[in-house]
Design brief:
Helix content is about 65%, strand content about 0%. The protein has 14 helices and no strands.
Length: about 350
């Protein structure tokens, strides 16, 4: 909005020329998101307390979690506001990729909000059924896949890091592939959100990594030099990524151990879906497996645990997702959180290194 209001003034006032620079708008989207979270955050926490939107802790989980009973949840509302508002202020709103990402972010956010509201406000322990959530996740992600498949000039090839010439053409199969990436990322982040700050830290790191890839993918010279797919218009997504980083850091202010508020499904489903969408739009879908390795391991730990118990009658881990396994082994919660952040930073560096290894 500011971009559309102020950039046209550049012809008369050179000062407004700064609005044409993507780096300038990305930085200020990040700052806006961070400042907004500090301004709005306390009010949101109070409102959630007033709604009695308090976390219900499972009695079969680690005993250390019982003291978290009653902590406000659904704090993902704050994250969404602090991503959407700066994006609308600083991004070029004629860019279709911005709207596709906001569609998933908002759509999955609504889905998570309904689920959280039923559970913690209406005291319906079932909330939305897994089948209902999966249905709407697939519908929204499949819609993005169909749109991109029919978008002139958008490639349906899949590119693999480290392999310069490995980029198979999926054709019509690209649609279910897009759905798989977005839905998988959404649920992986959702499963990771079990400790104070455990999910939002890696989300912010992932968003910062994709900020770089968005900028490069949208620049014909840089993408050509680094031999990654050039996606016209993808650079504008750097603004949204900047807002995600700022909103993530702002929420971490309240979500750091011991947490004052939890993000709930409204936050985890939407943030994961947004990361998956960014991966698709930058043609770096497979890279998400690397940079989002913590989310992948968390999801796989649940899949392996359920599969092993179903077919062998034995558990692989003391409890899944895997962060609970380490808790039950006696590792302190803050240490698990920080170590997972460190691992995510290392994986992000590995992902960035693929730019020179193709």
């Amino acid at each position: 909005m500011l971009y559309h209001l102020l950039y046209p003034l550049a012809s008369d006032y050179r000062l407004f020329n700064v609005f044409k620079y993507l780096t300038f708008r990305t930085i200020y989207a990040m700052i806006t998101a961070l400042v907004l979270s500090f301004i709005v955050g306390p009010w949101v926490v109070r409102k959630l307390e007033g709604l009695q939107a308090r976390q219900v802790i499972r009695t079969d989980g680690p005993e250390s979690h019982l003291k978290k009973q009653g902590t406000p949840t659904m704090g993902g509302v704050l994250i969404l506001v602090c991503i959407i508002v700066p994006t609308l202020l600083w991004a070029d709103l004629t860019n279709i990729f911005i709207w596709l990402t906001l569609l998933i972010l908002g759509g999955y956010g609504v889905l998570g909000f309904v689920d959280d509201y039923k559970k913690v406000v209406e005291k319906n322990p079932k909330g939305l059924s897994p089948r209902q959530k999966m249905f709407w996740q697939v519908i929204l992600a499949g819609g993005v896949g169909i749109f991109l498949y029919n978008l002139p000039g958008f490639s349906t090839e899949v590119y693999f890091p480290f392999f310069k010439r490995l980029h198979p053409e999926l054709g019509i199969l690209y649609i279910p592939f897009v759905a798989l990436v977005i839905v998988g990322a959404s649920n992986a982040v959702n499963l990771t959100d079990g400790l104070d700050g455990l999910a939002i830290g890696p989300v912010a790191i992932n968003a910062a990594t994709y900020l770089l890839f968005c900028y490069i993918a949208g620049n014909a010279k840089l993408s050509g030099y680094l031999q990654i797919p050039y996606v016209p218009g993808a650079g504008e997504l750097a603004v949204l990524c900047g807002a995600m980083v700022g909103a993530g850091l702002g929420f971490l202010w309240y979500n750091a151990y011991p947490a004052e508020v939890f993000m709930g499904d409204v936050g985890s489903l939407s943030l994961g879906g947004a990361l998956g969408t960014l991966a698709v739009l930058t043609k770096q879908e497979i890279l998400l497996v690397i940079v989002g390795g913590v989310f992948v391991v968390e999801a796989l730990s649940v899949i392996f645990q359920v599969g092993s118990y179903k077919y062998r009658g034995k558990r692989i881990f003391r409890m899944a997702p895997i962060h609970h396994h380490f808790e039950l082994k006696g590792v302190a919660e803050p240490k698990i959180i920080v170590r997972f952040w460190i691992i995510t930073i290392i994986l992000a560096l590995v992902a960035i290194s693929t730019l020179k290894m193709r």
